[in-house]
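protein under study:
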Amino acid sequence: MSQNSETRIGHQPSSAHGANRIESDTDTFLPSSQPNEVRIAVLIPCYNEAVAIAEVIADFKAALPHAIIYVYDNNSTDDTLQRAREAGAIVRTEMRQGKGNVVRRMFADIESDVYVLVDGDNTYDASSVRAMVQKLVDEKLDMVVGARRAENEAAAFRRGHRFGNDLLTSFVGVLFGRSFSDILSGYRVFARRFVKSFPALSTGFETETELTVHALELRMPISEVVTPYGARGDGSVSKLHTYRDGMRILMMILMLFKEERPLAFFSILFALFSVAAMVLAYPLVLTYMESGLVPRFPTAILATGLMLLAFLSLVSGLILDTVTHGRRELKRLVYLSIPAIGQ
C-alpha cells in the first residue's frame, strides 16, 4: 500500500478481499456490516525519544499493519527524526514547543477516519490498539481512552505521579459530573468528528485534560479500555515535570471549569465573598443594635465591598452561563456536521 494515502480497512471488491483489511486470528478486525472503508492514522508526538521511537513504530506496524504512522518531532536534539524515518514513519516537525502545540498541528494536518494518539516513549502497549479501535468502530464511539494499569507501579510511574493522576481525575469528576479513570493517559483512539471539532487551545501536557473535558461537555459517546503500562527503557527520560506540569494541569481544569460551568464557578465566589462579608459585619451589626454606633468604620466598608463583589460575581455567572449555553450549542452543531464513523 502506498504511504501517500491513509490506511483503508473494511470491505473491498471481491478481487481484493482481505488485501486491505486487518485480520485477527479468529475473525475480521472490523465488523462485516461496516459498509465503508475505515482509514487509520497513528499519531506520535515526540521530543528526544531516539531511544524508543523505532520500537514504538515497529510495534504499531505489527499491531496495525496497514496504518499510516506519523511522527511529529518537537525540536528534538537527538536522533529522533532520523530513527523515525528509518523505521518507516512519515516524519514532520512542529516548532512551537509543547505537546499541546504538537497535538493541535497533527489534528489540523492529517485526514483520516480513525486516529490513534500515543506517546513515543514505548510505555504503552501497542497490542491493545486493536481492541481500542474495534470498540470505537463497533460501538460508534468518538473517543476510547487507554486506562493505564502497571504490574510494577513503582517502576512505571515516577514518585507521586499515580497519586497526582488519581487526585486530578477525581477533581475533574467532581467538577464536570463524570469522568474517566485515567484522564492523563496519552493513549487514545478518536473518531474523525472528535478530532475535527476539538479546539486544541492548550500548549503542554494539559492537552489530555482538555481532550477529556471536550468529550464530557459535548456528551460524546466515549469509553475506556484497560491497557498495560510499562516503565521507560534505559536512556529514556520523562519530559513531564511533576510539580510544574501538575500545577499547569490543575490550572487548566479550573480554567475549563470557569469557561464551561461559569454559573457554578461564580456561585462559589458569591458564597465565599458573602460568608466573608457576613463574618466581618456580624459584630458590627450587634454593636449598632446595642449602641446605635458603627465602630471600626474601615471594617464596615470592607464588609460592604465584599458583599458587592459577591453579587457582582453572581450576576457575572448568570450572564456568562447564557453565553456559554449558546457557545455549547454552536460547538455541538459543528460536531454534528461531521459524519460519524462508518457513514
Observations:
- Strands lie at 40-46, 68-73, 90-93, 114-117, 143-149, 188-191, 222-228.
